[in-house]
Amino acid sequence: MATESWKEAYRELIETIVAMGYPEEFGKAIAKNLGAERAMRRMTSYLSQAKPQSAEEIADEMLSIRSDIDRWKQKKMNEEANAHYNQLRWEGLWDTDEEE
Question: pTM score, two decimals?
Fold first, then answer.
């Protein structure tokens, strides 16, 4: 279930896009693709500051934000895998008492 702050970010993004003269459906598609509250707020901030001149610029920024999110998630997964690998190297695969 979406939190109130998520709903507010969703609404604000759509309202900003509509205020720029684009259809509400376009705003909903952008919000849906971003998904996360923080990403929607980042997009709303971009729209307010950069004032893009076309739907393509808006879509490009949405893709850029998605790419940043995906890159961050991949980095966190890699860090976790590396931590497990290092733990495995430190502790070993087998209990050394059983080998003797």
Answer: 0.76
